[in-house]
Amino acid sequence: MLISKQITLKSRPQGMPVGENFELVEIEVPDARDGEVLVQNIYMSVDPYMRGRMRLDFPVGETLAGGALGKVILSNHPNFAEGDYVNNGYGWREYFLSDGAGLSKVDETLAPLSTYLGVMGMPGLTAYGGLLVTGEYKDGEAVFVSAASGAVGSVVGQIVKIKGGTVIGSAGSDEKVDQLLNEFGFDHAFNYKTADPLAELRRGAPDGIDVYFENVGGEQLEAALTHIRPYGRIPICGMIAHYNDHGQLTAGPRNLTETIYKFVQLRGFVVSAFGSQREQFLKDMSSWIESGQMKYHETVYEGIEKAPEAFIGLFTGSNNGKMLVKLSDA
Amino acid sequence: MLISKQITLKSRPQGMPVGENFELVEIEVPDARDGEVLVQNIYMSVDPYMRGRMRLDFPVGETLAGGALGKVILSNHPNFAEGDYVNNGYGWREYFLSDGAGLSKVDETLAPLSTYLGVMGMPGLTAYGGLLVTGEYKDGEAVFVSAASGAVGSVVGQIVKIKGGTVIGSAGSDEKVDQLLNEFGFDHAFNYKTADPLAELRRGAPDGIDVYFENVGGEQLEAALTHIRPYGRIPICGMIAHYNDHGQLTAGPRNLTETIYKFVQLRGFVVSAFGSQREQFLKDMSSWIESGQMKYHETVYEGIEKAPEAFIGLFTGSNNGKMLVKLSDA
């Protein structure tokens, strides 16, 4: 009998998630019936948005879910063959059976497999759609992105540069700031823990910013509202500063009135909005990777046992680029 | 020599504006030269947005400005005749000379003159454009409007009803709540000083709201973010709770993260955005007034000397509907 190790949500995190919120269990995987495929996950993703779902809708006591990249190792389904690589929503487990719903085949010749959880996957499409669709970015504009060294932020910044704009990024350490400037080609970058965001925005974009790609909230959002130009757009991808709020919620920006005379728009979004952009995205992104214009980093933990640690690490800044857990060899 | 009494900004208000921030002066008006018209104002408007401009850009020591409705009493300009009524931006004064720029003739047969500063004027167009254009209101949706008994809010609510939707309004006294329900035809209304906004929204629109027409900020915005439906829109017309902030700014909504999964959009605007809707607006609004579907109230102070008192009264709730100052007879 095949055994799948998986991670369940033992209890809802109160504030910052801790190891005790998770439990490693072993599940027997039944034989694949007609119309089913058996998938072995190779990589799984951990992402900040999961924190919200742990508070809201992931059932306690059940295996968590999330993006993963697996290989079909047995198929009783006409549309899938053994050896197919599939993006799936069944992370946090080693093996699973599926009737094919929600599996999408990926082309392993276009880009490395792990990138389908990063620049070629959800974070990449989040950056691409959030900037170009929700943020209505126009070539040559000035963009500020917070959490800029992360899986989404670093792609946002590089797309701005590819499309001829100016990009300012913030990150939480001097090493990351250095990476933004010297690897990802940002025009200006600062450490939000030690610098004054508004002063940095004025330095990096003296005439104002057109788009603020929001990942953080708090003081950086206030600075962006103050320094944004008329008709500026603020796509709200996340507000990581608020995810671990517990009891007392963190106050929002004190200067939302800035939106009025400047006709500024704030708009929340999640990646599911960009289904119709996906094909163009894969084409653009693979060519940018190929040409060397799109760089990426991965932090890879090994083994399903390390998944909670990898997830918690997102909130303590222990990743450099996309945080992944490797569950098996390709 | 013609003397015009006018009101200057003596000092910038610190927090709530007070009488000492204003000064009544008398100015000699020169003779109209070729190409100029002499206008006598009949009504002037006081509006909450002026508070922001007193803090920011109205020059200290100079006559204030704002919407007014006047009559051409002498014309050396080919496009204007004596007796023409003109909307103009030269409020806070009895007489002025103009080369015609910024004057727009109004049709006194369509609606009463004073309404061109109210339902047929800037507040009306603000409501119309803010709801239909910025708020992307679709027939039948559920709308929450704060400061609902004001010049803008009461029009928003009535347009929603004319277009088949559900409208909830908040106001600052039980009398105003009564007026919303019994005169303006709101479906639900509450006194924000004594009621819990979120509980009231749940009562008035159990399935959620689609649009929050934002005039106030604070707790009502938080309740709206919580109770708004996916793809909801929040046109930001004003945040009167924040205008008189002094020193310590008031915190913003703690739950902006609600925007993310619900794809909610917040968007600031001012009436200047709706120039291309103006013609349709005047047509719609005059027919709604004519048919009795659009009701309005005016609070009229008499004499230029009373203008500061009228303006300050906006922030203490002493108006019922559009606040006007009458400067002369038509």
Notes on the protein architecture:
2 copies of one chain form a homodimer. The first copy, chain A, is of the alpha/beta class and 330 residues long. Chain A folds into 2 domains: 2-118 and 297-326, Medium-chain alcohol dehydrogenases, catalytic domain (Quinone Oxidoreductase, Chain A, domain 1, Alpha-Beta Complex), CATH 3.90.180.10; 122-272, Rossmann fold (3-Layer(aba) Sandwich). Helix content of chain A is 26%, strand content 26%. Chain A has 10 helices and 15 strands. In chain A, the strands form 3 sheets. In chain A, strands 3, 4, 5, 6, 7, 14 and 15 form a 7-stranded mixed beta sheet that branches. A 6-stranded parallel beta sheet of chain A has the order 10-9-8-11-12-13, with helices on both faces. In chain A, helix 2 packs across helix 3, helix 2 packs across helix 9 and helix 5 (197-204) packs parallel to helix 6 (219-227). The longest helix of chain A has 14 residues, at 278-291. Chain A is globular. The two termini of chain A are 22 Å apart. The model of chain A has no long low-confidence stretch (mean pLDDT 94).
